[in-house]
Design goal:
The complex is a heterodimer of chains A (337) and B (270). With 337 residues, chain A is mainly α. Chain A is 76% helix and 3% strand. In chain A, the strands form 2 sheets. In chain A, strands 1-4 form a two-stranded antiparallel ribbon. Chain A has a two-stranded antiparallel sheet with strand order 2-3. In chain A, a hairpin with a 3-residue loop joins strand 2 and strand 3 (177-178). The chains are: A mainly alpha (337), B alpha/beta (270). The interface between A and B is large, with 37 and 42 residues.
C-alpha cells in the first residue's frame, strides 16, 4: 500500500472526525433556536452586537484557559485577576493620576505575575492546578480588597480614560459593537498560530497527552506550563483593563462569573477536560454558542433562569457529543484495513 | 572487534537510606539484544532510569564507547543516542501519528519567528519510518495514536527512536500488555532493530519473549546482578527459577497441580 498522507479530500467522513464538528453543530442549532424565538432584532446588528460583546470578553479569557486545559491544567484564578488588574489600572491612572499606559502596564503586570506564581507552584509541587489556582484566586481577591480599601478607602475606584485609550480599549463602535470584539479576533489569530501552526503548539498537545513522555522527548515542560499560566493571567488582566476603560470604574468584586463561563466555553468547544485534545476553532465556536444562549434569552423574552438551564444542558450535551466524535476519530483507524 | 556501546561499572544507586542497585556491572554491544530479567521490584526500572539519565548513579561509572559519561537529565542521554520506549509506547493517544512522531523535534518550514509546523513532511516521514519495520497497516499519518493497536504503538515508538538516531534502545516491558500476535510483531521489530546494529536492552519478565530475541541475559534480584550469561548457556527453567529469586518454581507448580481449578485461575492472573 502506498502512503497516502498528502492526499486530502473534504468528505463528510473527514469532517465528522474533525474535533470542531460537534461545536459547530451546537452553535448552528442554538443560533437557529434563538433566531426563531428572538426574531428579526436578534438577527440584526443590535442582536449580533449584544452577543458578540459578551463573546469577546469571555472569549479572550477562554482562549488561554483552553490551551491550559489542552495541556492538562485548570486556571480558576482568572476570576480574581480581572478585578485585581482593573483595580491596579484604576488606582495607578485614576487615583495617582499617572499616564494611562502606566496603569495598563501595571494591570497587565498583575496578570503576568499571578500567572507566573500559578505556574511555579503547579510545576514545583504536586498540588493539582485546580487547587493551586483556587488558592491563588482567594489570595489575590483578598489582596485586591485589602489594598483598595487601604489606598482608596473604598471598594470601587473610578477612572476616566483619555479619548485615545478609550477608543483603543473601551469604545463602542456605532454605539453597539465593543472594540474588544476586534481584540478578541486578534487574540484568536495569535492563539491559532501558536497552537496549530507553530511547532510549539505540538508541545502543548504532548504535554496534555503524557507529561512524562513529553519531558523525555526534550520539551521544556515546566517553562511551557508557566508560560501558559502567564498567558491566561495576561488575557484575564487585559479583559480587566478593557472593563475599566469601558465602564470607567473598577470594582473589587466581579469577574467571578468568568471562571465557570470560560471553562464552559472551552468544554462546549470540544476541549478534552483531561487534556491532550482540543482546538482554537472549537473554543471560538464554544464561546459563540455560550454567548448566543446568554443573550438570546433576553431577545426571546424567556425567563433568564431558563438560560442557565439551557447552558447546563448544553454543557452536558457538548461533553457527550465530543466523546462520541472522539471515539469516531479513533475507531476510524482500527476499522480501516 | 565489537566494543561495548554502553557499559556500567560497579554502579550503585540509593535513594536516601534505601539501596536500590548494588554494584551493577553490565555491557551491551552494537547489534546485540541484552535481556534484563527480574521480578517486580528487582530494580529494573531504576536501572533503566539510570541508563536513560533520569537518575544519576550514587557511585560507579557509566561508559559510552569506552568514555565515561554522566547524564544530568534525560535529554542528555537522548542526545547521546539512548532512547527509551515505555510499556505503552510513551505516546499520545489523541495526537496524530505525524505529530506525535516529531514531538520535541518538530519539522518546520518558513523562516525567522514565523516557523510553521510542517505537517506534510512529518506525516510522510513517520509513515515511511514505521512501514520500513514491516508495519504496513499504518498508511495515514493523520490517524490518531489512540486508534492503533498496542503492538503498532510499540513499533511506531521503536521506529521513532531509531529514526532519530538511537544507538541504544531501551525497551521497558514492550510486550507485557500485548496479546500473542501483537507481541510477535514487536519481537520482529526488535530483531530488525538489532539487524540495523542497534544495541537493544529489552526489559521483560516473560522468559519466552526474552529467549526469542536475546543474545545476552542479565537477571536482577533485589537490586543485584544475580546472573549474567549468554544465549544457550541456561535453560528456560533455570532462568525462570533465577527470576523468582532462586526458589524452585517446581514446588509451586506441583502445589498448583494439586488443585487444578485454582491453579488455572492463578495462572491467568499471573
Amino acid at each position: 500500500m502506498e502512503p497516502k498522507t498528502g492526499a486530502k479530500g473534504i468528505s463528510l467522513g473527514s469532517l465528522a472526525r474533525r474535533p470542531e464538528t460537534g461545536s459547530l453543530i451546537g452553535f448552528v442549532v442554538v443560533y437557529i433556536f434563538f433566531a426563531a424565538l428572538g426574531g428579526k432584532v436578534f438577527m440584526s446588528a443590535p442582536g449580533w452586537s449584544s452577543w458578540l460583546n459578551i463573546a469577546a470578553e469571555v472569549g479572550i479569557i477562554a482562549l488561554p484557559v483552553g490551551l491550559l486545559m489542552i495541556s492538562g491544567e485548570f486556571d480558576m484564578s482568572v476570576g480574581s485577576v480581572i478585578p485585581a488588574s482593573s483595580m491596579m489600572a484604576a488606582i495607578l491612572s485614576g487615583h495617582y493620576e499617572l499616564p494611562a499606559l502606566v496603569g495598563i502596564l501595571g494591570g497587565l503586570g498583575v496578570g503576568l505575575f499571578v500567572g507566573f506564581v500559578n505556574g511555579v507552584i503547579v510545576t514545583r509541587t504536586t498540588i493539582p492546578s485546580l487547587i493551586v489556582t483556587i488558592g491563588v484566586m482567594f489570595a489575590v481577591m483578598g489582596m485586591t480588597l485589602g489594598l483598595a480599601v487601604m489606598i482608596k478607602g473604598s471598594t470601587s475606584v473610578s477612572y476616566v480614560p483619555d479619548p485615545l485609550t478609550k477608543s483603543i480599549l473601551g469604545q463602542f463602535i456605532n454605539g453597539m459593537f465593543n472594540v474588544s470584539i476586534f481584540w478578541w479576533l486578534g487574540f484568536v489569530a495569535v492563539f491559532f498560530y501558536f497552537l496549530h501552526i507553530s511547532p510549539i503548539g505540538n508541545w502543548v498537545f504532548a504535554l496534555g497527552g503524557d507529561r512524562e513522555s513529553a519531558r523525555n522527548a526534550g520539551i521544556p515542560t515546566d517553562k511551557l506550563t508557566i508560560g501558559l499560566f502567564m498567558m491566561s493571567g495576561f488575557n484575564a488582566a487585559f479583559v480587566g483593563i478593557a472593563q475599566v476603560m469601558t465602564y470607567q470604574s473598577a470594582q473589587v468584586a466581579g469577574g467571578q462569573s468568568f471562571i465557570f463561563n470560560s471553562i464552559m466555553c472551552v468544554v462546549i468547544g470540544g476541549v478534552l477536560l483531561t487534556g491532550g485534545a482540543g482546538s482554537v476553532v472549537g473554543v471560538v465556536l464554544g464561546t459563540m454558542t455560550f454567548a448566543v444562549v446568554n443573550q438570546g434569552i433576553y431577545f426571546a423574552a424567556l425567563d433568564p433562569n431558563i438560560g442557565s438551564i439551557i447552558i447546563g444542558a448544553l454543557l452536558l450535551a457538548a461533553v457527550l457529543s465530543n466523546d462520541s466524535f472522539r471515539a469516531l476519530a479513533m475507531n476510524y483507524a482500527t476499522k480501516k484495513k | 572487534m565489537n566494543k561495548p556501546v554502553l557499559e556500567l561499572k560497579n554502579v550503585n544507586k540509593s535513594f536516601g537510606p534505601i539501596d536500590v542497585l548494588h554494584d551493577i556491572t553490565l555491557q551491551v554491544k552494537a547489534g546485540e539484544v541484552l535481556c534484563l530479567l527480574g521480578d517486580n521490584g528487582a530494580g529494573k526500572s531504576t536501572l533503566i532510569k539510570t541508563l536513560a539519565g533520569v537518575h544519576k548513579p550514587t557511585s560507579g561509572e557509566m561508559l559510552m564507547d569506552g568514555e565515561p559519561v554522566s547524564f544530568a537529565r534525560p535529554k542528555d542521554a537522548a542526545d547521546r543516542g539512548i532512547a527509551t520506549v515505555h510499556q505503552f509506547g510513551g505516546t499520545f493517544p489523541l495526537m496524530s501519528i505525524g505529530r506525535s512522531f516529531f514531538v520535541g523535534v518538530e519539522p518546520t518550514k518558513g523562516f525567522g519567528p514565523f516557523k510553521v509546523f510542517d505537517k506534510k513532511t512529518a506525516n510522510e516521514v513517520a509513515v515511511k519510518a514505521v512501514q520500513e519495520f514491516g508495519i504496513t497497516r499504518i498508511t495515514d499519518g493523520d490517524r490518531l495514536i489512540g486508534g492503533l493497536s498496542g503492538g503498532e504503538r510499540q513499533s511506531l515508538a521503536i521506529a521513532r527512536a531509531l529514526h532519530f538516531g538511537a544507538r541504544v534502545l531501551i525497551l521497558d516491558e514492550p510486550t507485557a500488555a500485548l496479546g500473542v500476535k501483537q507481541a510477535s510483531h514487536v519481537l520482529r521489530v526488535v530483531m530488525e532493530a538489532k539487524k540495523r546494529g542497534v544495541a537493544v536492552i529489552f526489559i521483560t519478565h516473560q522468559v519466552t519473549h526474552a529467549m526469542a530475541v536475546g543474545d545476552h541475559f542479565a537477571v536482577l534480584i533485589r537490586g543485584a546482578l544475580a546472573a549474567n550469561f549468554m544465549k544457550g548457556e541456561k535453560s528456560r527453567e533455570e532462568i525462570t527459577d533465577l527470576m523468582a529469586g532462586g526458589e524452585a518454581l517446581a514446588d509451586l507448580d506441583a502445589h498448583l497441580e494439586d488443585n487444578t481449578g485454582q491453579g488455572a485461575a492463578a495462572a491467568t492472573v499471573s
